[in-house]
Amino acid sequence: MFSRSIKATTTTTTTSSRFPLSLSPSPSLLLRQQRVRAMSTLNTKFKLNTGAEIPAIGFGTWQDRGMYAQENAVREALKAGYRHIDTARVYGTEAAIGKAIKESGISREQIFITTKLWNNAHHPDDVEAALDASLKDLGTDYVDLYLMHWPSAFARGESLFPKDSNGKNKIGDTDYVDTYKAMEALQKTSKTLAIGISNFSKSEITRLLQETSTVPAVHQLERHPWLQQAEFVEWNQSHGIHVSQYSPFGNQNEIYDKGKNMGKLIEDPALVEIGRKYGKSGAQVALAWAISHTCSALPKSKTPTRIHANLQGDFQLSTEDVQKIDSLDKKLRFNDPSESFGWRFYADLDGKR
User: Fold this and answer.
1) Is the model's pTM score more than 0.85?
2) Is residue 180 annotated as a catalytic residue, yes or no?
3) Residue 120 near residue 155, CB atoms below 8 Å
4) HEC states along 38-92?
5) 294 with 266: CB under 8 angstroms?
6) Per-residue model confidence as pLDDT tens digits over 242-269
7) What integer is the mean pLDDT of 194-209?
8) Out of 68, 82, 91, 278, which one is annotated catalytic?
9) CA-CA-CA-CA torsion for 333, 83, 56, 15, nearest 10 degrees?
10) Beta strands 112-117 and 145-148: pairing type?
11) Smallest Cα–Cα separation from 335: which of 346, 348, 347?
12) Helix (H, G, I), strand (E, B), or coil: what is residue 258?
């Protein structure tokens, strides 16, 4: 088992909440304290099994293909203080991210970059070329983390979504273990400092651990207060695998059809009520809850105010409030492309349809 450690630093000094017994804080002072707490961030980092540190809140870029819009969003995120940028080959955002990083003036070493191998490049002979293409667009000679986006393979070729004669995704026959072994070889070239996985089931990880030699540094998966997967998260962590949450706001992402005919997770009354105690929003509480369970989280936005606000989701919840959020689990999974990808994802996990 790999040990995990948390490194937290505070960049904003908050006014002390302790007062002499003979004095009571004025309402105006309490309001100022609340505003300071709302604008602060702990800059929490988690140690991976490689020894590297990953910032607890990263900037997600899924579904933001517009070059100009994404470049501006990443530029704003870096200005706000994000030092963890998450992308993938299939997102189509790598070039915009690379340009924003170059123009930011921030040294490459200060930014943790994650990208992902797409399904059409699972064949062992294609893996390095796929990473090289990502590195070229990102404008860097290495990434901090390279993930296998899904355990399922598509047919080899240039098309990200190759089609068969019926217009359905053309499925490949490459075993994800062979793909991962090719990724292991890449780590030795220093083109990626760590490798990991995304959207794997427990049985798939178990097999990976048995048949390969490198424990994944990170497992990126859907997780939020309505899909907590507590046992699975703890199981990953017990094997030295850090869990990183995508869609930390659940059905806030409009692509999820399953989440359209219900209230938004970030408006859950329990999250909103807890947020009032800290001068935070329901979204910020959801992020703080993730961090309380030693998970990093990847919120995304193109709106400057929300970009800044999400980073302020790195604050400490009380044990009582964490437990209240733990009780919200609905085992409600929003992202499951099993049918279109020709693979039964999450077969042994909570929230499987």
Assistant:
1) yes
2) no
3) yes
4) HHCCCCCEEECCCCCEEECECEECCCCCCHHHHHHHHHHHHHHCCCEEECCHHHC
5) no
6) 999 999 999 766 665 665 677 899 999 9
7) 98
8) 91
9) -130
10) parallel
11) 346
12) helix
